Every structure is written in structure tokens, then in C-alpha cells.
Amino acid sequence: MQAVIDLVQVFFRVAAQLGRTLLYKAKQGIMSENCRMRQDNPAVRFPPCDLSTTALNHCDYRLYLNSGLAHAQFVVETIRSHTDARNLAVCEWGCGPGRVIQHLPQLDNGIARLIGTDRHHATIDWCRQNLPHMEFLSHGMHPPLTLANNSMDVVYCCAVFSHLAEPLHHAWVTEILRLLRPGGLLIASFHGNHYEDRMAANELADYRNGSLVVHPKGREGETDFVSFAGDRFVREHLLNLFDNITRLDDAPFLQTVWAATAPAA
Predict the structure, then answer these.
(1) For 55-72, what is each residue's pLDDT tens digit?
(2) Beta strands in 119-235 (DSSP E)
(3) What is the pTM of this model?
(4) Alpha carbons 156 and 116: distance in angstroms, whole number
(5) Which residues are CB-contacts of 207 (< 8 A; sequence separation ≥ 6)?
């Protein structure tokens, strides 16, 4: 019997060592690839891994660049399908470490004022130091932002609502309405229909009937706290005070993206 116990202990020690070795090699591979990405893309500002992991749940600079650029292009295309006005004031609510916002000035020279906001103060400090010619504001979990009423032409957010419970959905939509000028544009993404397989049968029924489904695994606002917003919830309950509510099915997101405009004066 002791021989069996000894053999099992040896097995687990070897397995643990193998796991540590594989993890070390994987980290070394990512670090090496990230160094190449920095060298090949000197104009891009890549955040330190702790900030990237907090916001995005990874520290893969290739993914950071490619997804950020694709999402920025989509934001600009959506803005320009809405308006051809110049001198726009644009705000990214929940900008994280600049994955999307840093590409906008190169993609659209009609943006005169570009503001990023985030509740992680270290992230905002990094953005201020590394992304010039933009404004960055820190805030808490709850509104308000330190911006004037009717001061924004566009507010957009990527994967922010999907980590909030329902009260904060409504609180932040009210705040975004305060910020937008009459006719101003909101672009927002949610965990939508692509994620139906993550819900239990009773949750899926609630989701399709217009309820927000929440998986409160971690702290609200963090990446492991997840909410799912279906079409009825977005149209009938969340954005019901907006005009021109449109689901954008051509978005390069796994999330469902919606656009809506603030009511005219």
C-alpha cells in the first residue's frame, strides 16, 4: 500500500513540475512575441501586462493591436454613417489602457476632442503619460463623469455594460444621455445572442423575455462578473429613451453592438 502512495506522490510532483515548465515556456513565448510587436509597431502604445490583464484578461500585444484597430475602424465607420460633421467631441466610456481610443485620431481627422474615461486610476495615469493629445478622466463605479451637460457628439463603449448589474446599466445610460448633445450618438456593446450557450434554460427564457441575466462570479465591474443583455432588454428597457435604436450586425465583435441617438431638442 505504501508503494502505491509513494507512486501517486511521485506522479503528482512530476505533473506539477511539468505544469510549471509549460507555463514558464508559454510566458516566455508571449514575452518574446510582445517584444517583437513593440519593435515592429513603434507608433503603438502597448500597456504593461498588469494593466492589460486587468482590463482585457490577457497580455497578448498582437491581439491588443489587431482587435483595437478593428474596433476603432468600426467605431469611425459607425460615426460617419451617422454624421459627416467636423470638430466632433467623442468620449470612450471605459477606455481601459487605450486599446481602441489611440487609433481614432489616425482614422478620422474630424474628431476635435477625444476623451477616455475609466474607473481604474492606474490605467488613466498610464494613458495620460502615453497617449498625448487626448483627455483622460478617472471615475468611480457610479456616475457622474466630470463632463458638462450636452458636451459630447458621440459616446461609445466596448465591453463595459457586460460587466455590470442592472442598476448600473440604467444609471450609466442616464449619465450618457446627460452628456450627449441632442441627436448625439451612442455606440455600445453587450453580451448578446452569441453567448446564449452560457445560460441555463431558465436564464435563457428570462433573457429572451427582456430580462438582464447576471452571472455575479466576481466583483461587479471586473471581467469575471458577466451580464447578458438580449434584444428586448436593450430596446424596451435600457435604451427606450433614445431614438433610432439599431442593432449593428456587421460589427467585428463577438458581442452584440447597438447604436442609438439622443432625442432631438
Answers:
(1) 998 999 999 999 999 999
(2) 135-138, 152-157, 180-190, 213-216, 225-228
(3) 0.89
(4) 10
(5) 196, 199, 213, 228, 230, 233
Considering only CA atoms, which of 138, 131, 84 is closest in space to residue 111? 84
Task: Give the pairing of strands 243-248 and 256-261.
Answer: antiparallel
Residue 93 is assigned to a structural domain of this protein: yes
The DSSP symbol for 87 reads S
Per-residue pLDDT at 18 exceeds 90: no
| SS3 annotation, 213-229 | EEEECCCCCCCCEEEEC
Residue 178 grid cell: 446627460
| Same domain assignment for residues 31 and 69 | no
pLDDT digits (tens, 9 = 90+) for 115-155: 999 999 999 999 999 999 999 999 999 999 999 999 999 99
- Asked if residue 187 is part of any domain, the answer here is yes
CB 156 within 8 A of CB 90: yes
Give the residue numbers spanning the domain of 136: 61-261
140 and 13 together in one domain:
no
SS3 129: helix
Distance CA 99, CA 116 (A): 11
* 46 inside domain: no
Longest pairwise C-alpha distance within the chain: 82
Q: Which helix (H) or strand (E) holds 172?
A: helix 166-179
Question: Contact at 8 Å (CB) between 181 and 125?
Answer: no
